[in-house]
Protein backbone atom coordinates (compact mmCIF):
# COMPACT_ATOMS: atom_id res chain seq x y z
CA UNK A 1 0.00 0.00 0.00
CA UNK A 2 1.29 3.46 -0.85
CA UNK A 3 1.53 6.25 1.71
CA UNK A 4 -1.21 8.20 -0.08
CA UNK A 5 -3.61 5.30 0.51
CA UNK A 6 -2.46 4.89 4.13
CA UNK A 7 -3.10 8.60 4.78
CA UNK A 8 -6.49 8.46 3.01
CA UNK A 9 -7.58 5.52 5.17
CA UNK A 10 -6.32 7.14 8.39
CA UNK A 11 -8.13 10.40 7.52
CA UNK A 12 -11.38 8.51 6.95
CA UNK A 13 -10.95 6.72 10.29
CA UNK A 14 -10.34 10.05 12.07
CA UNK A 15 -13.40 11.65 10.46
CA UNK A 16 -15.61 8.71 11.41
CA UNK A 17 -14.09 8.66 14.94
CA UNK A 18 -13.00 5.04 14.49
CA UNK A 19 -9.23 5.61 14.57
CA UNK A 20 -7.47 3.85 17.45
CA UNK A 21 -3.83 4.80 16.82
CA UNK A 22 -0.96 3.79 14.58
CA UNK A 23 -1.14 0.30 13.05
CA UNK A 24 1.64 -2.20 12.46
CA UNK A 25 1.20 -1.80 8.69
CA UNK A 26 1.65 1.98 8.94
CA UNK A 27 4.86 1.62 10.96
CA UNK A 28 6.11 -1.12 8.64
CA UNK A 29 5.55 1.27 5.71
CA UNK A 30 7.78 3.92 7.30
CA UNK A 31 10.45 1.34 8.11
CA UNK A 32 10.45 0.08 4.52
CA UNK A 33 10.49 3.61 3.12
CA UNK A 34 13.64 4.37 5.12
CA UNK A 35 15.25 1.03 4.21
CA UNK A 36 14.61 1.52 0.51
CA UNK A 37 15.52 5.24 0.36
CA UNK A 38 18.39 5.53 -2.15
CA UNK A 39 19.09 9.25 -2.03
CA UNK A 40 19.21 10.63 1.50
CA UNK A 41 20.03 14.30 1.99
CA UNK A 42 21.34 16.17 5.03
CA UNK A 43 21.09 19.95 4.60
CA UNK A 44 24.07 21.08 6.68
CA UNK A 45 27.43 22.67 6.17
CA UNK A 46 28.71 20.78 9.20
CA UNK A 47 30.74 17.71 8.19
CA UNK A 48 30.85 16.46 11.80
CA UNK A 49 27.05 16.15 11.88
CA UNK A 50 27.00 14.40 8.49
CA UNK A 51 29.65 11.89 9.62
CA UNK A 52 27.75 11.03 12.78
CA UNK A 53 24.48 10.68 10.90
CA UNK A 54 26.18 8.38 8.38
CA UNK A 55 27.74 6.26 11.11
CA UNK A 56 24.31 5.69 12.66
CA UNK A 57 22.60 5.10 9.29
CA UNK A 58 25.21 2.40 8.56
CA UNK A 59 24.61 0.75 11.95
CA UNK A 60 20.91 0.55 11.07
CA UNK A 61 21.62 -0.82 7.58
CA UNK A 62 20.43 2.32 5.81
CA UNK A 63 21.91 4.12 2.80
CA UNK A 64 24.62 6.73 3.31
CA UNK A 65 23.42 10.35 3.29
CA UNK A 66 24.78 13.15 1.13
CA UNK A 67 25.45 16.67 2.30
CA UNK A 68 23.46 19.46 0.65
CA UNK A 69 25.40 22.71 0.82
CA UNK A 70 22.70 25.32 1.03
CA UNK A 71 22.35 28.35 3.26
CA UNK A 72 19.61 27.43 5.74
CA UNK A 73 19.93 30.41 8.09
CA UNK A 74 16.52 31.65 6.95
CA UNK A 75 14.93 28.55 8.50
CA UNK A 76 15.58 30.05 11.93
CA UNK A 77 13.33 33.00 11.11
CA UNK A 78 10.43 30.58 11.02
CA UNK A 79 8.27 29.10 13.80
CA UNK A 80 9.49 25.57 13.03
CA UNK A 81 13.19 25.96 12.21
CA UNK A 82 14.18 22.25 11.97
CA UNK A 83 11.21 21.37 9.77
CA UNK A 84 11.64 24.52 7.67
CA UNK A 85 15.26 23.57 7.04
CA UNK A 86 14.12 20.15 5.81
CA UNK A 87 11.52 21.73 3.50
CA UNK A 88 14.10 24.20 2.14
CA UNK A 89 16.29 21.22 1.18
CA UNK A 90 13.32 19.35 -0.30
CA UNK A 91 12.55 22.30 -2.54
CA UNK A 92 16.15 22.53 -3.78
CA UNK A 93 17.01 18.91 -4.64
CA UNK A 94 15.66 15.56 -5.79
CA UNK A 95 15.80 12.92 -3.07
CA UNK A 96 13.91 10.17 -1.26
CA UNK A 97 14.55 11.25 2.30
CA UNK A 98 15.77 14.35 4.12
CA UNK A 99 17.30 14.28 7.59
CA UNK A 100 17.39 17.75 9.02
CA UNK A 101 18.52 19.02 12.40
CA UNK A 102 17.75 22.44 13.73
CA UNK A 103 15.98 24.40 16.41
CA UNK A 104 12.62 22.99 17.53
CA UNK A 105 10.71 26.25 18.03
CA UNK A 106 11.48 29.58 19.75
CA UNK A 107 15.08 30.51 20.65
CA UNK A 108 15.99 28.40 23.70
CA UNK A 109 13.69 25.51 22.75
CA UNK A 110 16.55 23.12 21.95
CA UNK A 111 16.97 21.00 18.90
CA UNK A 112 14.94 18.58 16.79
CA UNK A 113 16.07 16.07 14.21
CA UNK A 114 13.34 15.38 11.67
CA UNK A 115 13.04 13.01 8.73
CA UNK A 116 10.72 13.86 5.85
CA UNK A 117 9.87 11.94 2.70
CA UNK A 118 10.07 13.14 -0.91
CA UNK A 119 6.80 15.08 -0.53
CA UNK A 120 7.76 16.72 2.78
CA UNK A 121 5.68 14.45 5.03
CA UNK A 122 7.07 13.81 8.51
CA UNK A 123 8.11 10.19 9.06
CA UNK A 124 9.88 10.47 12.40
CA UNK A 125 11.63 12.96 14.67
CA UNK A 126 13.39 13.29 17.99
CA UNK A 127 14.14 16.21 20.25
CA UNK A 128 17.10 16.87 22.48
CA UNK A 129 18.04 19.67 24.89
CA UNK A 130 20.04 22.78 24.06
CA UNK A 131 23.78 22.54 24.46
CA UNK A 132 23.44 24.89 27.45
CA UNK A 133 21.33 22.23 29.22
CA UNK A 134 22.89 18.93 28.15
CA UNK A 135 26.54 20.08 27.83
CA UNK A 136 27.14 17.20 25.40
CA UNK A 137 29.37 17.51 22.37
CA UNK A 138 27.38 18.12 19.20
CA UNK A 139 28.27 14.68 17.81
CA UNK A 140 26.86 12.92 20.88
CA UNK A 141 23.69 15.01 20.78
CA UNK A 142 23.14 14.34 17.05
CA UNK A 143 23.88 10.64 17.52
CA UNK A 144 21.35 10.38 20.36
CA UNK A 145 18.69 12.14 18.28
CA UNK A 146 19.04 10.04 15.15
CA UNK A 147 19.16 6.77 17.12
CA UNK A 148 15.99 7.80 18.98
CA UNK A 149 14.30 8.88 15.72
CA UNK A 150 15.01 5.47 14.14
CA UNK A 151 14.26 3.31 17.19
CA UNK A 152 10.92 4.98 17.89
CA UNK A 153 9.60 3.68 14.57
CA UNK A 154 10.82 0.19 15.41
CA UNK A 155 14.12 0.09 13.49
CA UNK A 156 17.04 -1.68 15.13
CA UNK A 157 20.81 -1.67 14.77
CA UNK A 158 21.94 -4.53 12.55
CA UNK A 159 25.63 -4.18 13.47
CA UNK B 1 13.22 40.64 28.22
CA UNK B 2 10.03 39.64 26.47
CA UNK B 3 9.86 36.73 24.02
CA UNK B 4 9.22 39.12 21.13
CA UNK B 5 12.55 40.83 21.83
CA UNK B 6 14.33 37.46 22.26
CA UNK B 7 13.00 36.30 18.89
CA UNK B 8 13.88 39.61 17.22
CA UNK B 9 17.47 39.38 18.50
CA UNK B 10 17.80 35.71 17.46
CA UNK B 11 16.45 36.52 13.98
CA UNK B 12 18.97 39.32 13.58
CA UNK B 13 21.78 36.97 14.67
CA UNK B 14 20.62 34.33 12.16
CA UNK B 15 20.46 36.86 9.33
CA UNK B 16 23.94 38.17 10.12
CA UNK B 17 25.25 34.59 10.50
CA UNK B 18 26.42 35.32 14.05
CA UNK B 19 24.04 32.97 15.88
CA UNK B 20 25.79 30.22 17.85
CA UNK B 21 22.85 28.40 19.40
CA UNK B 22 20.45 28.80 22.32
CA UNK B 23 21.61 31.05 25.16
CA UNK B 24 21.09 30.63 28.89
CA UNK B 25 18.84 33.70 28.95
CA UNK B 26 16.60 32.21 26.24
CA UNK B 27 16.23 28.93 28.12
CA UNK B 28 15.67 30.78 31.40
CA UNK B 29 12.86 32.73 29.70
CA UNK B 30 11.08 29.49 28.71
CA UNK B 31 11.56 28.06 32.22
CA UNK B 32 10.09 31.20 33.78
CA UNK B 33 7.22 31.31 31.30
CA UNK B 34 6.24 27.76 32.29
CA UNK B 35 6.67 28.47 36.01
CA UNK B 36 4.51 31.58 35.86
CA UNK B 37 1.81 30.16 33.55
CA UNK B 38 -1.48 30.42 35.47
CA UNK B 39 -3.91 28.89 33.00
CA UNK B 40 -2.61 25.69 31.41
CA UNK B 41 -4.85 23.84 28.97
CA UNK B 42 -4.79 20.22 27.80
CA UNK B 43 -7.06 19.65 24.79
CA UNK B 44 -8.10 16.05 25.37
CA UNK B 45 -11.19 14.09 26.27
CA UNK B 46 -9.00 11.54 28.01
CA UNK B 47 -9.01 12.02 31.80
CA UNK B 48 -6.18 9.50 32.23
CA UNK B 49 -3.83 11.68 30.15
CA UNK B 50 -4.85 14.81 32.05
CA UNK B 51 -4.24 13.14 35.40
CA UNK B 52 -0.77 11.98 34.40
CA UNK B 53 0.11 15.40 33.00
CA UNK B 54 -1.06 17.04 36.24
CA UNK B 55 0.91 14.62 38.39
CA UNK B 56 4.09 15.50 36.49
CA UNK B 57 3.34 19.25 36.48
CA UNK B 58 2.97 19.09 40.28
CA UNK B 59 6.28 17.24 40.64
CA UNK B 60 7.94 20.06 38.69
CA UNK B 61 6.19 22.75 40.77
CA UNK B 62 4.01 23.95 37.90
CA UNK B 63 0.35 24.96 37.90
CA UNK B 64 -2.32 22.31 37.43
CA UNK B 65 -3.71 22.01 33.89
CA UNK B 66 -7.38 22.14 32.90
CA UNK B 67 -9.02 19.88 30.37
CA UNK B 68 -10.49 21.53 27.27
CA UNK B 69 -13.32 19.39 25.89
CA UNK B 70 -13.16 20.03 22.19
CA UNK B 71 -13.31 17.66 19.25
CA UNK B 72 -9.78 17.53 17.88
CA UNK B 73 -10.22 14.71 15.36
CA UNK B 74 -9.70 17.18 12.52
CA UNK B 75 -6.10 17.73 13.72
CA UNK B 76 -5.25 14.27 12.38
CA UNK B 77 -6.15 15.38 8.84
CA UNK B 78 -3.21 17.76 8.99
CA UNK B 79 0.52 17.23 8.37
CA UNK B 80 1.36 18.11 11.97
CA UNK B 81 -1.42 16.55 14.06
CA UNK B 82 -0.02 17.21 17.58
CA UNK B 83 0.80 20.84 16.83
CA UNK B 84 -2.49 21.35 14.99
CA UNK B 85 -4.36 20.06 18.03
CA UNK B 86 -2.55 22.61 20.20
CA UNK B 87 -3.37 25.43 17.77
CA UNK B 88 -7.05 24.35 17.66
CA UNK B 89 -7.16 24.68 21.45
CA UNK B 90 -5.34 28.04 21.34
CA UNK B 91 -7.95 29.39 18.95
CA UNK B 92 -10.83 28.26 21.18
CA UNK B 93 -9.78 29.44 24.65
CA UNK B 94 -7.83 32.03 26.63
CA UNK B 95 -4.77 30.54 28.31
CA UNK B 96 -1.07 30.97 29.01
CA UNK B 97 0.13 27.54 27.96
CA UNK B 98 -1.20 24.58 25.98
CA UNK B 99 0.09 21.05 26.39
CA UNK B 100 -1.06 18.92 23.52
CA UNK B 101 -0.36 15.31 22.65
CA UNK B 102 -1.07 13.76 19.30
CA UNK B 103 0.45 12.13 16.27
CA UNK B 104 3.81 13.55 15.14
CA UNK B 105 3.34 13.33 11.36
CA UNK B 106 2.07 10.65 8.96
CA UNK B 107 0.08 7.66 10.26
CA UNK B 108 2.60 5.35 11.93
CA UNK B 109 4.94 8.18 12.96
CA UNK B 110 4.21 7.85 16.68
CA UNK B 111 3.33 10.59 19.10
CA UNK B 112 4.55 14.03 20.11
CA UNK B 113 3.78 16.10 23.16
CA UNK B 114 4.15 19.79 22.46
CA UNK B 115 3.89 22.91 24.61
CA UNK B 116 2.96 26.23 23.02
CA UNK B 117 2.60 29.68 24.52
CA UNK B 118 -0.38 32.04 24.30
CA UNK B 119 0.58 33.06 20.74
CA UNK B 120 1.12 29.49 19.51
CA UNK B 121 4.92 29.54 19.63
CA UNK B 122 6.63 26.23 20.39
CA UNK B 123 8.44 26.22 23.75
CA UNK B 124 9.30 22.54 24.06
CA UNK B 125 8.29 19.10 22.81
CA UNK B 126 9.12 15.43 23.07
CA UNK B 127 8.43 12.45 20.88
CA UNK B 128 7.74 8.85 21.80
CA UNK B 129 7.10 5.69 19.79
CA UNK B 130 3.72 4.33 18.72
CA UNK B 131 2.02 1.96 21.11
CA UNK B 132 2.70 -0.82 18.59
CA UNK B 133 6.44 -0.26 19.08
CA UNK B 134 6.77 0.60 22.78
CA UNK B 135 3.87 -1.53 24.15
CA UNK B 136 3.71 0.80 27.14
CA UNK B 137 0.45 1.82 28.77
CA UNK B 138 -0.69 5.25 27.61
CA UNK B 139 -0.10 6.77 31.07
CA UNK B 140 3.55 5.66 31.06
CA UNK B 141 4.07 6.95 27.53
CA UNK B 142 2.52 10.35 28.34
CA UNK B 143 4.47 10.59 31.58
CA UNK B 144 7.76 9.89 29.78
CA UNK B 145 6.99 12.52 27.14
CA UNK B 146 6.09 15.34 29.51
CA UNK B 147 9.07 14.64 31.79
CA UNK B 148 11.38 14.70 28.75
CA UNK B 149 9.73 17.89 27.42
CA UNK B 150 10.32 19.67 30.76
CA UNK B 151 13.79 18.30 31.49
CA UNK B 152 15.14 19.18 28.05
CA UNK B 153 14.60 22.88 28.80
CA UNK B 154 16.40 22.49 32.11
CA UNK B 155 13.46 22.15 34.52
CA UNK B 156 13.82 19.72 37.41
CA UNK B 157 11.49 17.87 39.75
CA UNK B 158 11.13 19.75 43.02
CA UNK B 159 9.45 16.82 44.85
Automatic annotation (TrEMBL), chains A, B:
Superkingdom as given in the UniProt entry: Archaea
Cross-referenced InterPro entries: B12-dep_deHydtase_bsu, HcgB
- One Pfam family linked to the record: HcgB
Q: Please state what the protein is called.
A: DUF3236 domain-containing protein
* Source species of the chain: Methanobacterium bryantii
Amino acid sequence: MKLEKIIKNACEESISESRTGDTEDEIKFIQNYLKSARKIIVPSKNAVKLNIINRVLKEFGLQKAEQLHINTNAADLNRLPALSKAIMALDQCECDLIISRGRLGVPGSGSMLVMIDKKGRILTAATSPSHVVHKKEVKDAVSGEIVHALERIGLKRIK
